[in-house]
Fold this protein.
Amino acid sequence: MPTYEKQIVGGNTVLKAPEASDRDLALDFAKGILIILVIFGHLLQYIFYQGDGFWDSACFRWIYMFHMPLFMAISGYLCRSALLSKPFRQAIVDRVMQLLVPTLFWCTLLEAVKLIMLPRPPTAPDNVLQFLHDFVGTYWFIWAAFASFLFVKLISIFNSWSSRALLVSVILVALAPVTFSIFPLIKYTYPFFCVGFSFAQSREWWTSIMRPHKPLLMMFTSIAAILCFIAWREDTYVYNNLVLIQNLQSAKDILLMFCGSAAASAVMIEVLLQSWKIGRSSSAVRFIAAEVGQSTLLLYLVQGTVFRLMDSIQYGEGWTPTMKSAAALILGTMIVAVALAVRWSMRDIPYLSQLILGAPPRLVRLPSNPANN
């Protein structure tokens, strides 16, 4: 948990969470763009293609090649301090409070809306099973991030051989023949979390090696990403191959998936970081970094809730391309606006900030005279 500072505000003693003056706004900008792409990818799926034919969309393919792998790599990079400096129990408890508590809140809200407003199909599973299905499936990336954090924290306990153990864990997780629930998605994203964590551990060493050859590396990586993009097909998506090697063709699909995602992620992080350097004086770019990029958890939970609700309703029959574009623009804007409004209104309220946003409030009021209590 953050270290609070005592301050006097309006005659009252408060605990003030330290400002994130040491935040890397370039990474916040990258996270902001990535969460926008997550929302746009779902808009393509739900509005433009309405659940049919989106696998062949070039735009959908481009987004899904890198957005979640890169998100997971950034998560691993930013988790280095929590993974290495906190005791095991505190690190896990803090992660539960940050990720799983707000996920539970938004899933409960989702189920309440479905129960009150939407008709229940006769073949639907009972409420408990439906809740568990939505709790895990709707917000799968949260569970993948938590599982990756847990795995790496367990490995980091053994400092003398953690690097080797990390590599072994990546191989074992990626090749595990488990296809139940969201396990394929964990197998897909866990290696990228480990790459981000490893880069954070040895950033100076990696930078010193890559800097002299950066233009050449980026050229070859870009070519690899383009070739993988061209070869990418429906069975290359993790949702379809389940990271399960069954024959030579499935092995090729899985190899293409990991190689393509790695190459595309490397290219896109460089593009995003350079975009930040060029445009950081722009108010729009700084808004993406300071507001959108620092609200990615909430935005992911809100958009997941909205799109899961759309699975249960009928919409879009007979819509023209213009109507679909308008609907996508309105829905995407509303998701961002609602999430930011919730963040601004809840971030200073004790308990609610932790419950809804996954973050402690910035101000915690203390009694003016603790001796009288």
User: Anything to note?
Assistant: The radius of gyration is 22 Å. The longest strand covers residues 5-9.
